[in-house]
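Minutes, methods subgroup
Present: GH (chair), OT, SY

1. OT presented the first of two proteins processed in the latest run. Sequence and C-alpha cells recorded below as shown on screen.
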Amino acid sequence: MASNFSFSFGGDDIDHDDQPAPLAKSPTRATDATTPVSSAASAFPVQGKPLLPPVQHDMAHMLSKLPSKIAFGLLSVILDDGRTIQIPRRELWDVRLQLMAEEDSDVAPGSEPGLGEHDVKTGIYEGGFKSWESSVDLVKVLDAENMPLVLKRDPCVLVELGCGTALPSLALFQWALTERKSGGKLPLELTLADYNPSVLYLVTLPNFLLAWALHQREENPILEEAFASEEELELTPEVIEAFKDFLSSHQITLSFLSGTWSPEFVELVYHSSALASAAGDVSTLILGAETIYSPFALQSFAGTLLSILERERRERPNGSAAAIIAAKRMYFGVGGSLDDFNDKMRELGATIENMREETEGVRRGVVRCLLP
C-alpha cells in the first residue's frame, strides 16, 4: 500500500506548487536488485516502519525508462558576487503526467522490469520532486568556496545524500562541463542518492540529462533538433547515446543509489565508485540539504556521514574529504534541528565550521564537517 504520509517543510519550497499529487507507482526498480522491494515500505523513511534496502541503479536501464520527451524550466540562482547560474529542472507537472500514464498502464507481474507490483509507491509525498531553499544555499556556498577551481585541480568524488532534484550536484556538473570545453578532463565521479528510487528516475537523472543537453546544444546538431520546443527536450535514441558517450569520453561517472542510510549503503557507495581504489590527491565532498528533519533521520544520516569520512581518511590519506550540510535551524513539528546535528557530529568526533547563515524568512544554516 502507498503511504499517505504528508510532509511539509513549511514555506520554503521554491517551486511554489500546491496542486495535489496523483497516487502512483514508482516507474522502475533497479535491474540489479536481487529481491523485490516490500510493498509495506513507505516512500518516506519513518521510524518503526519497514525501510527500503540500499540499491544501486543501472544508468542505462534508467535512461531506457524515460519518456519520449521531458518538459523543463530554468531556476536562476543569484550567487553572492552577483553572477547568476541557471539550473534546469524537469517540471513537476511533467513528472505527474508520467506517473499518471504509468498508473493507467500498470502491467502484470513478470512483465517489463520496473513496472511490476513490487515497485515503491510514492503516495502523496512529493518532497523529493521539488527544490528547497537549503539546496540553493549549498549552490551559493560551493561557488563561494571556488569549487570550479577544485574541479580543475584534482580528481573529484561527489556524494549527494538525499539529492532530490540535485541542485548542488547539477551546479558542480555544469562547472565541470565548462571545464571540459577548455580541455580539462580530470575524473569526476558523482554519486546521487535518494531514499525513494522514483525520485532518481523521475527528476534526478532527467535533470542531469537536461544540464548536459543545454550546455552542448550549440555543438551538437542532434541536440539542436531535440530542442524543437524551447521548453521541451526530445529524448531520441541518438540523444541518449550522445549523453552516454559524452560522459564516458570526458571521464564523468554518474552513479545512482536508493534506500535507507546504513552500513550497507556505505558499502554500495564504494562498490559503485570508479575511483574507489585511487589513493592519490582525490578531493571528496559529501553534500546534504534538508536531510536532518527529524531525530530519526538525523541519527542515521550522521552515522552514514561519519562512516564515509572515516573511510576516506583511512583509504585515501593523501586526499581531502569534507561534508557540507545545509538545513533549517529548526524543523517545527518533527523535531530535527541544525544545532542537534552539529552536537551529534561533535559527539562522534567531527569538527564543525559554520559557513553560512540565512536569517530572512525561515532561518537556515550551512556547516562544514571534517575529521580532525
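2. SY then presented the second protein from the same run.
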Amino acid sequence: MASTMAIEGKHKQVYESFHGAGKFPDGCKAAKGWFDQLRDACKRVGSWKEGEEEGAVMDDVLKKTENLGGVLTKDGDVLKKTKDGDELKKTKDLGGVLTKDLGGVLTTSTLGQGLLGLRKWEKHSVDDGFTQERVAELLDQGPCIGRLWVCPWYFHFDAAKNNWVYRGCGRDEGDRAESKRLYGNHQNGSHVVVCFQYRLCGEQMHVLVLDNHGKDGPERWIDFEELDALFTLKVDCLCGTPDHYHDAGTSLVT
C-alpha cells in the first residue's frame, strides 16, 4: 500500500539524516502482514471498497493509520496478545504497554518499539494550484503520496526498462468519464503512488514514483500534470532503541 511505503520512506529519510545512508534498521521496516491488518481495519469502519474498484480513499487510510498509532514494523510484529484482566501486554523482552484500538490491532505507547508513527499529514489538491514550483517545493520535503488517474497503458511504463514518461487520459472529469466508457474499470481509475524525485526537461517536469504492484515497485516517470493530489507526511520519531534517540539529539520532528 502506497501510504505504508511513504511513511516508511519518510522515517528512513529522517533516520538516515542522523545516522548516515544505509543505516535504517531492517527491523524498523513495515511488517510483512501490515497491509492486511490495515485493510481489515479500514473494512471494519466501512472505508474499504471491494469489487472492481477495490481500495479506499487515501484520506481515510491515513486517518486510520493515525488511529492505529502508525505502521507496524517487523520488530513490532513479534508482539503477542496476553490477557491480564482487561489489559493487553507486550512480551516481556520488549517491555512497554500495548493498547487496543477499536479494530483490535496492537499498538505500542513506547516510541521506537514496534511502530513507525505518523504525527501529521496534509493534503494538497490540484485545485490549490499545482505549478512546477509548488510541486517541487512539496517533493523537496521528502517522500510523499501522489494521486493520479491511470489508464491501461500506464502499466507499460518502467523507469528501469525505458525512459518513457506517462501521460494519461484523466486530467479532468470529462476525460475520466470517457476513459471509463472506453476501457471500463479494469486497470483504469484513480491510483496512489509514492513520489520521491523529480527532474526538469526544458519546460517539462517529470516526477519519479514508486508503485506498489511488486516488491520493488516498479518505478515510473510521470508528467507532473497527471497528479491531482499530493499528501505530505510528518513523523514524530525515528524508529530504533532509546539510544538511537539520544544519539540523534532532540530535533527529531520533520
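Chair's summary of item 2: Confidence is low (pLDDT under 50) at residues 79-112, 239-254.
Next meeting: continue with the remaining queue.
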